[in-house]
């Protein structure tokens, strides 16, 4: 009996730390149920009304940048991400409304954008500092780049705040070296 209680407690703890389902996923399921009239009995779909009880069985972390881009229908339905349709089951009543996209392609593209932005954040200060006179102006340039860097980190990664601050500290150290070499 005690083992059974321990197992239940472990299962409950596991469910409690699971991330909540994104609103967009709930809306998508609700939309599907609306379009597929009587696909599932109404009583069986009432779980969608209890959003705080829903958990992701396979959590997927996405960056704030990706979440922002996925709000756009144009981005989500872009032909760049289109994936070949798998064989559909016979009971699919509206196959023309289904859209398959490649998460790998989206993640790779966002990774390329982040890499290009990162390279820009390393190279741009070199050129700006080379053409800036006076220590106060150079410190102002470095401050601006550090603030932009921290903002980009917060927007493009899933890093925790202390990790972002540590990365910003390392970035400011690199910029301090640039400042000394520009003098």
Question: What's the arrangement of secondary structure elements?
Answer:
Elements: H1 2-17, H2 23-35, H3 64-70, H4 73-76, H5 103-130, H6 135-156, H7 161-182
Helix pairs in contact: 5-6, 5-7, 6-7
Concise summary:
The chain has helices at residues 2-17, 23-35, 64-70, 73-76, 103-130, 135-156, 161-182. With 183 residues, the protein is mostly helical.
The overall pLDDT average reads 84
Count, helices: 7
* Shape type: elongated
- Helix/strand order, N-terminal first: HHHHHHH
| Poorly predicted residue ranges | none
Q: Please, how many domains?
A: 2
Structural class: mainly alpha
Largest sheet: none
C-alpha-based Rg, rounded: 24 Å
* Helix percentage range: 55-70%
Distance between the termini: 74 Å
Number of strands: 0
* Strand residue percentage: under 5%
Protein traits:
2 domains, 183 residues, mainly alpha, elongated
What does this structure look like?
With about 180 residues, the chain is an all-alpha fold. The chain has two domains: about 1-60, no CATH class; about 105-180, no CATH class. Helices cover about 60% and strands about 0% of the residues. It has helices at about 1-15, 25-35, 65-70, 75, 105-130, 135-155, 160-180. The chain is elongated and about 75 Å long.
């Amino acid at each position: 009996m005690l083992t059974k209680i321990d197992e239940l407690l472990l299962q409950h703890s596991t469910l409690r730390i699971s991330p909540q389902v994104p609103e967009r996923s709930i809306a998508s399921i609700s939309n599907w149920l609306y379009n597929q009239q009587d696909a599932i009995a109404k009583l069986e779909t009432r779980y969608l009304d209890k959003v705080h009880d829903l958990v992701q069985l396979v959590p997927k972390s996405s960056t704030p940048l990706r979440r922002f881009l996925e709000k756009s229908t144009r981005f989500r339905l872009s032909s760049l991400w289109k994936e070949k349709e798998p064989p559909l089951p016979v009971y699919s009543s509206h196959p023309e409304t289904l859209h398959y996209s490649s998460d790998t392609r989206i993640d790779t593209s966002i990774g390329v954008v982040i890499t290009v932005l990162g390279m820009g954040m390393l190279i741009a200060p070199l050129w700006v500092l080379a053409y800036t006179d006076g220590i106060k102006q150079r410190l102002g340039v470095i401050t601006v780049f550090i603030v932009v860097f921290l903002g980009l980190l917060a927007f493009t990664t899933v890093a925790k705040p202390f990790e972002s601050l540590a990365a910003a500290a390392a970035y400011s150290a690199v910029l301090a070296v640039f400042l000394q070499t520009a003098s």
